[in-house]
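Record copied across here:
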Amino acid sequence: MEQLFLSAFITLFVVIDPPGCAPIYAGLTKGATTAERRIMAIRASIIAFVILLVFALFGQDLLSALHIELDSFRIAGGLMLFWIAWEMVFEKRTQRREERAERAAREHVEDVSVFPMAMPMLAGPGAIAAIMLLMNEAVGLEQSLVVMGALVSVLLITMIALIAAGPLIKLLGERVEAVITRLLGVLLAALAAQYVIDGLRGSFGV
């Protein structure tokens, strides 16, 4: 059981990538207060767990019933992430926040907990495929619970990483934060492109 837990934990940790998601989350929540960042991080982790739990238990049946292939998730998720990356690089999100501040006494921070953090960043095509594969290989209820335990552990680490990333980036100052946000936008665009490429390869058997 320990070997199964370790294998599942490593697989999900690499796929979900908490260290990689944390700085992207910090860039997406630029302008939010510490409390707002914390709430969105907790909400994103919980929603991601629910999504992955559904696919772990009913993934194959759900996709088959809807006639949807996993590669379609990769392409759609990649396109959505690319749009977010474009806004990060060209600071369109900052412009929207400034416009909102002019119309309201208090700035309304955009909630990124559902999209793009929970889906497709945390519970993306890779994580969905990984949890479905791990559950298919698990034999019996006990092994299935071990896999679920590994998933919960990874998402708890992810939640802590997201909460800690915001204050750390904030301490660096606005100029450094702007540079980091644009750099992360470029990296996010590359990740989005990879999602699309993987989806196209899977769809057309390239």
Q: What stands out?
A: The radius of gyration is 18 Å. The chain has one domain: 2-204. Confidence is low (pLDDT under 50) at residues 100-107.
